[in-house]
Design goal:
Length: 273
């Protein structure tokens, strides 16, 4: 479901080196999950890339099985299947790996960053109006059927799996401490940027949104902070960030119109670093 635009606010198993979830990284790598991923947007993405590149032992079969079970549940509900999206797999695996490495469970990481942060940091083209997520931690000897049964035992998780507008999913599974850490992301792809948005935004960066619903017309853009406060914006699809401090990150929102209503499509995060 599209988010109505508020003009007042404009808004896989991974091999871990040692018991206890300690993550082993080479001396040359920027991956060090003892204190989580980097704090700035650029360092966050760089460290996610490094950590995932160093680990190729994902539970591909379990991830694929969970995707199949998700689509079976959607089919039983009379809904269209969701497609695996690489960037959402990346976001899900990054969070699963962090939970496994630091032995915690939650939708947010220990720094307070949630699934929407990860999606908007790691997917540089997605425009979405709605997102959901499922997180499950179980014994490492659980199979995919048992994991899926645990997911659907929660009412909110079941609603996510059968959300009518969701089109894409990403799944990540990591193991440590005798447990498996399972993360599933689901979202509605309402459109995409023609070209990936750079992490570091140069003033005057052009946007070329491709909106899937032909009834929607592009109405402009804005950059907002985490609270939804507008930092910059305009109607011409050329992003400037004069009000964004050098050490800040902001969220790109593409505004679309249908009849007299304006809606927000959430896009990638950007930094001035």
């Amino acid at each position: 479901m599209l988010q109505k635009y508020d003009t007042l606010r404009t808004a896989s198993l991974l091999a871990l080196a040692a018991a206890g979830g300690t993550f082993a990284a080479s001396a040359e790598s920027v991956c060090d999950l003892s204190d989580g991923y980097g704090t700035s947007l650029v360092s966050y993405v760089q460290e996610v890339d490094a950590c995932l590149a160093e680990n190729d032992a994902f539970a591909d079969e379990m991830e694929a099985s969970l995707a199949d079970l998700t689509n079976a549940a959607r089919s039983n509900a009379g809904l269209e299947p969701v497609a695996r999206r690489a960037s959402l797999d990346k976001a899900a695996r990054a969070h699963a790996l962090d939970m496994a490495a630091r032995n915690y469970a939650g939708h947010n990481d220990l720094e307070g960053r949630g699934h929407v942060y990860r999606m908007r940091a790691l997917d540089r083209q997605l425009l979405t109006g709605s997102t959901g997520s499922n997180v499950v931690v179980m014994s490492a000897d659980a199979d995919s059927g048992e994991v899926f049964d645990m997911i659907i035992s929660d009412a909110t998780n079941r609603e996510n799996l059968t959300h009518e507008t969701f089109t894409d999913t990403g799944i990540g599974v990591a193991e440590a401490n005798g447990k498996i850490y399972v993360v599933q992301m689901l979202t509605t792809v309402d459109g995409e940027l023609e070209q990936p948005l750079p992490l570091s935004l140069a003033s005057g960066t052009s946007l070329d949104p491709r909106i899937h619903d032909k009834m929607l017309r592009t109405a402009g853009w804005n950059l907002s902070d985490e609270s939804g406060q507008r930092l910059a914006g305009g109607k011409i699809m050329r992003v400037t960030a004069d009000n964004l401090a050098a050490d800040e990150h902001a969220y790109l929102n593409v505004l679309v119109e249908m009849n007299a209503d304006t809606y927000v499509l959430q896009g990638p995060m950007v930094s001035m670093q």
